[in-house]
Each structure stands twice: as C-alpha cells, then as structure tokens.
C-alpha cells in the first residue's frame, strides 16, 4: 500500500520568498514520486517527477524537489515565489513510473502568494 | 506532445438524465486511461482504470453500473454518468498514457452539475 501526506493544506508566502511545500510518502516498494499543479477548474499539470535517478529533481517553472529516502520525504521548493505560482499543488506516489501506474494523491496544498 | 482533450469542460444536467464525458489523446495512443473524481477543495480519488479493448477496473465503492466507462480505441475513453443525481455533481478528470516518457497526461477536467 502507498500513501502520501502533505503537511499544511494552505501555505502563504510573499512574492519573491522561498516556497516550501511538504510531502511525505509511504510505500512498500521503491516509490516513484510526482508533483502536480492545478489551477482553478483545470486539470493537473506535471511539475516534476522522481523515478529513481537523481535525487534532486528539477521541474518546470523553477520548481525542484529532493527525494530523501531516510526521511521518506519529497518536498517541493522554489527559491522565489511569483504571483502566477498561486495554485493547488498535489504530491503523488506510484509503484511504477508508467505503464498502467496508479497514482495515489495527497490532499493538496493551496499556495497563496501575496504582494 | 502528449495532449489530452476532455470534453465537455462544463455540463449541467437534470436529475435522472445521463451525461457522457469524453477523454481523447490527441497526439499519442493511450493504452490506459484513468478516471478521477474531485470534490471541492479535496484531492483526486481514482474511480476506475480503463484499458483499451477490455473492461474497466473500478475502485472499491464505485458503482460500475452508474459510472459506465468505455475505452473502445487507443485515443478515446468515455465516462457516462447514468441516472445522475445531485450528489454526482463533481469535477471529473481523466488521465491518459503512457506517453513517450512513460508518463500520464491529464485532461482539463469536466465540471458536472446535476440540478
């Protein structure tokens, strides 16, 4: 069984400040981990994914995440927040990278960016 | 590449009627499509997994007779909500794949409102 816990349903940062969205996972096998962003009334867009290669993963829009096995974490960061980053972010885990993989999603974190 | 089109984006229907939602992979062949349901301010819940040419696999608690899924071709899967009731009002999202990078791409979602 696999699960994802996202700490903090709402995170608020100032424009230009560091963004840190937390994700911890549980998996019985080496996991594949994903971060998605969702804007209102839209589908999900993949930000980045970890598939057992480099532990520091760089994604789109300046986001990156680091896989830490010892901490079972995959936190999402961005050095400088932009107003356009305001959205809902979901962490997800899968037992496989593709080929019929089922994604288990966290409950999401709403990111608010203030002037 | 890897574009998934979901239609309609919004639909309002009367209680007791049926609604069909289409999910199309536009530039790749999708052997697997997933259907999710998302309640307001909540995460995505997997409803069913659809493989081309075979019956869909439903998650526990999802009524297969109410949520009919057809995946007749490698580019199209449909979800039909039969005899819709107000409690079926939700945001439905599909994802299709695997694509070239073995990942899955999400559609833009369908907002269903049953009145």
Q: What's a quick, concise take on this entry?
A:
Chain A has 115 residues and is mostly beta strands. Chain A has no helices and twelve strands.
Structure report:
The complex is a heterodimer of chains A (115) and B (115). Chain A is mainly beta and 115 residues long. Chain A has no helices and 12 strands. In chain A, strands 2, 5, 6, 10, 11 and 12 form a 6-stranded mixed beta sheet that branches. A 4-stranded antiparallel beta sheet of chain A has the order 3-9-8-7, with no helix packed on it. A two-stranded antiparallel ribbon of chain A has the order 1-4. In chain A, strand 5 and strand 6 form a beta hairpin. The termini of chain A are far apart. The mean pLDDT of chain B is 91. Chain B is built from no helices and 11 strands. The N and C termini of chain B lie far apart (37 Å). In chain B, strands 2, 4, 5, 6, 9, 10 and 11 form a 7-stranded mixed beta sheet that branches. Chain B is mostly beta strands. Classes of the chains: A mainly beta (115), B mainly beta (115). At the A-B interface, strand 6 and strand 11 of A face strand 5, strand 9 and strand 10 of B.
| Strand content range of chain A | over 45%
Give the tally of β-strands of chain B: 11
- Give the DSSP E fraction of chain B (strand runs of 2 or more residues): over 45%
Largest sheet of chain B: 7 strands, mixed
Shape, principal axes of CA atoms of chain A: globular
> Radius of gyration of chain B in whole Å, from Cα?
13 Å
Average pLDDT over all residues of chain B: 91
By secondary-structure content and strand pairing, the structural class of chain A works out as mainly beta
């Amino acid at each position: 069984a696999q699960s994802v816990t996202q700490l903090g349903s709402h995170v608020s940062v100032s424009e230009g400040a560091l963004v840190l969205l937390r994700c911890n996972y549980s998996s019985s096998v080496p996991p594949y981990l994903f971060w998605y962003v969702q804007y209102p009334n839209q589908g999900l867009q993949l930000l980045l994914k970890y598939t057992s290669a480099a532990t520091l993963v760089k994604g789109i829009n300046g986001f990156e995440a680091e896989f830490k096995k010892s901490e079972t974490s995959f936190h999402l960061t961005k050095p400088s927040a932009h107003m356009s980053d305001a959205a809902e972010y979901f962490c997800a885990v899968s037992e496989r990278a593709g080929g019929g993989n089922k994604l288990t999603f966290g409950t999401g974190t709403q990111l608010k960016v203030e002037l | 590449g890897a574009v998934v089109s979901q239609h309609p984006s919004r639909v309002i229907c009367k209680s007791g009627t049926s609604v069909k939602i289409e999910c199309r992979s536009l530039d790749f062949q999708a052997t697997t499509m997933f259907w999710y349901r998302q309640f307001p301010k909540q995460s995505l819940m997997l409803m069913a997994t659809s493989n081309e040419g075979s019956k869909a696999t439903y998650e526990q608690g999802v009524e297969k007779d109410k949520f009919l899924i057809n995946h007749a071709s490698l580019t199209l899967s449909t979800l039909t909500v039969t005899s819709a009731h107000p409690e079926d009002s939700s945001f439905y999202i599909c994802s299709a794949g695997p694509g070239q990078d073995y990942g899955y791409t999400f559609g833009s979602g369908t907002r269903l409102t049953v009145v």
